[in-house]
Structure of EngB-type G domain-containing protein:
Amino acid sequence: MELHVPSKVAASLGLRSSKRAARREKRRTIDFARGTCPPPVVKTPRVDRLIEGAVGGSRAELIAACVGRADNETLVEAVNELVRLDRSDLAARVSVDGREVLAAEGPALKAVAGALCRAGELEAVLALASALFEEEEEEEASVTPHPARVFGPLACLLLRSGRDPRATIERWRRAETRCPGSPAADFNPTLVEARKARSLASLFAVLDVMEAAGARGDDRTFEIVAQAAVRSLDFVAGAVSLQTLPAHDLKEAVFIGRSNVGKSSLVNMLANRKSAAFVSKKPGKTQQFNYFAVNDFSLPNNRRRQSSGGKKKKNASSSPSWDPPGSFYLVDVPGLGYAEVPKAARREWADLLEAYLATRDQAALAFHLVDSRCGPMPVDRDIFAMVKRSLARREGPPLRYVLVLTKADKREAKKNAVPDAHDALRADLAEHLGDDLARDIPILVTSATTRRGRDAMWRHLKHAALPSLSERGS
Ligand SMILES: Nc1nc2c(ncn2[C@@H]2O[C@H](COP(=O)(O)OP(=O)(O)OP(=O)(O)O)[C@@H](O)[C@H]2O)c(=O)[nH]1
Ligand SMILES: [Mg+2]
């Protein structure tokens, strides 16, 4: 017979119950047939068994000498034990020696890399990484290494200790290109660490690694990315003419498209805010160029936010030049082509948008949104023509033009409409902009409801957030 009793009662009856289990479980099971709680799981002393009978040398030396016979669980224990014995030099050696055993099982590899990182053995983890991912490529087929399980803990350690992790992350990217397969969840701890360290450059570098690994982010991934990339969002201005556009030196990402296509909703999705930009079922909601500052800590109320709340990055005021705070603007503009807006207002918005695209130096990125249920409509073709004229006139810094199919979650969109809209867009682009220009224009598929496409959009937003890094091609 089994009976559930609270762990405190179990303890007062003198029944065995570890403190940890008591904390974790509110109730425990007593097996009255045996009169005890189930015994706590006792670890097999694998390392002891491994060195049984061996003589001469210290315990650490014996472990190192015998570890060639170890399976991966024993190897993990051995590395942990060596680290505990303050012999991380031996831990490093046995992990490199045991690389083939470790490579066969991702979690064991992660455990060893984690133990070495905790011991501060950076060089050892790098040596293990080199031995696994940069040597003998013909061995790849027989093992299943997961670069994220070695490079992830290493990058975390560097971020935690305030060091520049970019060279390591670049090695990680190369390793993923050679032996892809790290699951998306293995990247999240490093993204969290980059968020804590407020290192946007590292965050985006890890996203590049994920792309190389073919790892699609999960919901958690993009929650972390949005939290890290948008630490503050402030509505700063609603402009109705070129003269009233706010003056600043940051880059801008603008959302253009027909009325009701979902521009304001995408702004909210990317910023991880419910209603920063007003959304409405009724077309014509947005009536001016709405400027949202992202991470602009020069704004008066943000200075306080930068210096208070949460864990502060060491030397937050003087972040290194390779790791800027990622300040930029999201610009939500009125939709074009809505018949119920007076003709004069529609003309004014279209003229302002064209002048903006042609002359605004800060404009770095234009997302043109098209409804995935119906593909390009006449107003979208007017926008293609407008973009072509503006880009031809533009003398300032280059402007990236990206097409975005919206509302991909809608029932009508699911019935094959997305691929159809995609093909129709490609054809229209080639017709209106010419093959050469059209070929390089990305088409992304998104949904503000399911949040599909956040990763792809952030890959482009990165160029507005970190322009100095993207200019250098990093
Ligand atoms: N199902 C679904 N609905 C969406 C999506 N994006 C936007 N909507 C809905 O579409 C309507 C219009 O969205 P808005 O974001 O206001 O569109 P807009 O392009 O800013 O519209 P204007 O400001 O009028 O130009 C709202 O009812 C949204 O809830 C989406 O991805 N999926
Ligand atoms: Mg809007």
Observations:
- Residues 263-264, 285-286, 332 surround magnesium ion (ligand 2) (CB under 6 Å).
- The radius of gyration is 28 Å.
- The chain has four domains: 2-31, 43-145, 159-225, 230-471.
- The chain has a mean pLDDT of 82.
